[in-house]
Amino acid sequence: MTGVVCAALLSGCGSSDSKHAGEAVDGTKASQPTETHAGHVHTETTQLANGDVQETTASLDVLPSFLDGQSEKVVLAYQAAAITRDTLAWIPCYCGCGGSAGHESNLNCFIAEVNEDGSVVWDDHGTRCDVCVNTVLQTVQMKQEGKSVKEIRTAIDDAYRVGYAKPTATPMPA
């Protein structure tokens, strides 16, 4: 499966050393836009109260620096999330992140939001969770096979319904 997914995905940027600055009013830790590497600027990093790190980059083509040193499978999962975000918004996650991190779908394990200017707020939750990674990779594979969003959703629900945490409160696709 990784080879199929890999063929459809773009590469991100290389290594970096993030610099952290102070603590925000809401208890999160944030850094200023301080680094450039491989021609990309990583604009902001925030640590949430639940322990997740979120990093803003200029676009979906610029992967976050927290992926430096991660396995190929994890990097592929983030690339997959970037290219299938419209589908992932309909796919629940079964790792328990709905309750622990307030996620609404599997997409939120990787991407918190895409801003109007095209910048992306990435979430590092997926770097620590095989359920999240496997869900996005299964979604991409099924999408490449021509499955509909409803078919993908049904297959994911069937695969994770028993023995996993309560799913995120993701609405069913129409």
TrEMBL record:
Residues 15-41 are annotated as: Disordered. InterPro entries: PCYCGC. This is Lipoprotein. It comes from Paenibacillus terricola.
